[in-house]
Amino acid sequence: TQVLRKGLQRGTVLSAGSFLVYEAHKLISGFAEVHASFKVEDVIEQADYLYGSGETEKLYRLLVQHKNSDDSELLWRLARSSRDLAQLGSTSAEEKRQLTYDSLEYAKKALEKNESNFAAHKWYGICLSDVGDYEGIKTKIGNAIVIKEHFQRAIELNPKDATTIHLIGIW
13, 49, 59, 64: most buried by Cβ count inside 10 Å? Predict the structure, then answer.
């Protein structure tokens, strides 16, 4: 209540809008001082919420800010969101192509950061398959074994992931 009282005192001096902006800035600044892993967890929580809500574009905008991250959890989610954005009907053909190649790079980077991340293997396989659509049938067939290996590795790491089991079945 003391914090609220002080805030209200400041609020009388500032307009209601500036007060809210000021308080939000203070709150965000406080979070920035917390250990980096907390920030990553916060972004992941927000990303998972947006994914579950079907907010594809917002999710991509959130995660693309972290494209240079060293965290495989952020990177595979960025690969997935890039791919999902590429799949939208409102995305232009050139954007689809760029997002498809970007998604593969993000998945590859996620694997480089953590080879034991099942989701990174799953999304690497999915994204590699998508790139084959642009590279032609010969490349797609050539990548098929690599894709299968990544799906199998994902299943070894997480045998209960229904999506990966489904994908290996389709393969």
Answer: 59
The CATH class for the domain spanning 23-170 reads mainly alpha
The predicted model scores a pTM of 0.76
pLDDT in tens, 125-156: 999 999 999 998 999 999 999 999 999 999 99
Q: Would you kindly state where each structural domain of the chain is located, as residue ranges?
A: 23-170
Helices of type H across the chain: 2-13, 16-32, 36-52, 56-64, 72-87, 93-113, 118-135, 137-157, 162-170
The dihedral through the CA atoms of 144, 150, 155, 156 has a sign that is positive
Tens digits of residue pLDDT in 46-66: 999 999 999 999 999 999 999
Q: Is the separation of the CB atoms in 51 and 76 below 8 Å?
A: no
Residue 102's Cα: distance from chain center in Å?
A: 12
C-alpha torsion sign, points 55, 79, 114, 121: positive
Report the C-alpha gap between 163 and 11 in whole angstroms.
Answer: 51
CA–CA separation, 80 vs 51, rounded Å? Answer: 10
Report DSSP state, residue 35.
Answer: -
